[in-house]
Amino acid sequence: MLDYDAEAEAYDATRGGVPRAEAAAAAVLGLLPPATGTLLDLGCGTGIVTTRIAAARPGLRVLGLDTSQGMAAMALSRGVPVVLASGTRLPLRAGSLDAVGAVWLLHLLRAPGAVAAVIAEAGRVLRPGGVFVTTVDKDSAHDVGSDIDAVLAPHLNATPADATADVTAHAARAGLHPAGEALFTGHGQGRTPRRSAAALLAGQYASRVRPRGIAPRELADRLELLPDQDTPRAEPTYRLRAFVRD
């Protein structure tokens, strides 16, 4: 698993930077009611998306939350107020927020029950009529029919943590019901064979790829045999789902 404290300073540059962050922020804002006054950004990371959500709606009070001190420090440097805590146990009172966001978070939560716990906590802290917005099917968005996908296909995790059907079921148990969706482009996330091989060996694909009958190094070697090693393949299209609190 990626060491987010160590990766914090370089993280944005390897994840599409400002264009991807702006696309994500715009998609989140499109699912929030105009009267939304407070938002908790779960897994806010470096705050690159959080700041753009806040800037687009000056009257919106935004709070970030992350478990990584390195990421939280980056968010704080961008002016985002951040709480160091787990999304499975939010230090907030019930019914205190208008919105909770979780962008590129649920797919990382592989511990049994973690996704359900995060969604339950989101439901707990939302007021009636409040909205929970989250990315779903994040890893599968990177399957764009490329030669990289063909190499990785036999080794993909068959049980993603953020599958739409599972997230919807967890949300229903938390008193949250579907209220819309949005798509946005993962700018700068078109993969190259060389970067994919490096990411695999660095553990960045831990939520997505489980090499079967092969060592990670050998799977990386197969990626490094593909043509056009530094030519990006198609960019992914991410999906956001919104759920409203009873």
Task: Give a quick precis of the structure.
This protein is an alpha/beta fold. The chain has helices at residues 4-11, 17-30, 48-56, 69-77, 114-125, 147-152, 164-173, 193-201, 216-224; strands at 38-42, 61-66, 82-84, 97-102, 126-136, 176-185, 237-245.
Architecture (CATH level 2) name: 3-Layer(aba) Sandwich
CATH fold annotation:
Rossmann fold
Estimated share of beta-strand residues: 15-25%
Low-confidence stretches: none
The span between the termini is: 36 Å
Query: Looking at this structure, what is the CATH superfamily?
Result: Vaccinia Virus protein VP39
- The number of helical segments is 9
The H/E string reads HHEHEHEEHEHHEHHE
Helicity range: 25-40%
Overall form:
globular
Give the class from helix and strand content and strand pairing: alpha/beta
Level-1 CATH class name: Alpha Beta
CA-based gyration radius = 18 Å
Report strand order across the widest sheet. Answer: 3-2-1-4-5-7-6
Count of extended strands: 7
- What is the domain total for the residues? 1
Sheet of most strands: 7 strands, mixed
